[in-house]
Amino acid sequence: MQFLKLILRNTLRHKLRTGLTLLGLVIAVLSFGLLQTVVDAWYAGADAASPNRLVTRNSISLVFPMPLHYRDKIRAVDGVQSVAAANWFGGIYQDPKKFFPQFAIDAVPYLAMYPEYRVPEDELRAFLRDRKGAIVGRKLSQSYGFQVGDVLPLTGAIYPGNWSFTVRAIYDGAEAKTDTAQMFFHWDYLNETMKVRIPRRADQVGVFVVRIADAARSAAVSQAIDALFRNSSAETLTETEKAFQLGFVAMTEAIVVGIRIVSFVVIFIILAVMANTMAMTARERLSEYATLKALGFSPAYVAALILGESLAIALLGGGLGIACTFPVAAWFGTQTGAILPVLEVGPLTLAMQLASAFVVGAAAAVLPGRRAARVRIVDGLRAIG
Amino acid sequence: MSAPLIRVRGVSKSYRRGGQIVPVLHDLSFDVARGDFVGLMGPSGSGKSTLLNLVAGIDKPDAGEILVDGVDITRLSETELADWRAAAVGFVFQFYNLIPVLTAFENVELPLTLTALSRRERHAHVEAALGMVGLADRVEHYPAELSGGQQQRVAIARALVTDPKLIVADEPTGDLDRQSAADVLTLIDRLNVELGKTVLMVTHDRRAADFAHAIMYLDKGELSAAEDIHERSVHGRH
Lengths: 385, 238
Hints:
heterodimer; A: alpha+beta; 10-stranded mixed sheet; two-stranded antiparallel sheet; 12 strands; 56% helix; elongated; B: alpha/beta; Rossmann fold; 6-stranded mixed sheet; 4-stranded antiparallel sheet; 8 helices; 10 strands
């Protein structure tokens, strides 16, 4: 008890110093957690990918479309259960800064492939009945105040002209990591409009999402699909949905690496600050440690006092930092909108925050603890606190 | 005649300062009888505190042996020495060396936490020790809330609470006014007279030394003289 009492009272001895160190720890652990959450959000699409879904695209680039008739050929490949066409629409809502992803989809097969998008039955029926209907995710509807029945005007950037949709359904995610910041509408509506406006761009598909029966056969099915279109004017590249999503992440990998490095630099900086605090603390109390040793307390006891104090500060700061991560991440999520649609503080991030606080506390106590444990009593007694 | 409590034989000690070896004590030999009160005097740098530290087991000699109550403390390991100090020696320092975040009660209780005593037993010992030094009404005070004299009395209570045979005091009145110094010296004298503690006290102050039964003079690391002042000191104080 005396040991814990000493640790507690020593921790509160210099309230300003302890308070400032705690503040630094809270900010560092919070920043670390937030940056790790952003990195996780970057990979959210890949993490949410189903192993039973493949994506077929033009092998040259996503920019180049594929003919619509590929759909029937892909559907005939052994192991394929269903196929849905999808096009990136890239429309502008009011202002280019108000970005959110919009996809033209083969509604029935596409939504069947994504059971994680939970659409109320009546709203789904209303959407399927309306050629110009749209489904928006819950986060998107909350960001821009979209309600069922609202007209959603978009200015086409890839597909020119003004487009008008009616929100017929709002979907929720089955899990926290499900992206609910997207908008979907009927591929047929896009195609029919293009037939009128720019006929040469009709019957062109951006990607085919393919559902397969057996995830273990994804490589074989992918090869079979691509073999169908080898030596054609639009050769394909089929890959798992996860690989497809990771391809997007790879384009921005330097940013992700940068964020990761910064998150660890933040922890290293607070480690240096904490080590300095503990070194100052131990130096000031050298005569007390010498007194304890003179009274018969072991060097290990003295080192444990410093370690205990350092861990108490670090874990308290870490705990507060972790507690702050949730509201700050939630607020940050509202600011990033559809750019980082799934901004959830994951259990691994929490574990890493806690571990980093523990490592900071333990590492900061190593040198001061060693010094206090090894100082000769007669030298320590001469030290002025 | 009983064996002396402290037996010092051929003790030498030197320090290394800036690459140079500075001899502090040279081939010292002396005895201190059980229940004696010995003052150590001498000019600054004569090695008084070093000798006290060696006898108290917080420093080790380069040569020679130091037996305290039959234990050659120069042969003990650091761990054994720590255990021995906890059981056998009570320390009184010039600047009291109390732990500032602990109350008077907790400071006195501190050495007892190294023993197997129960909480109830510890509290009884602490209350008795603080009662003896006249601070029973200051148990909840922190060192910063006490005067220098009171702090030194808490330190004395801490020194006697484990009931050690030997009490070492390094300039115990060096930081006190005259009245507080007299109170502290009277207290140390009581430990010697009433409880039979052997006291070894370093002091610069002749008036403080007068409380001792004998004075050893150190000069340049050697015993230059010894003076038995038992009779005179007793008469001088009363």
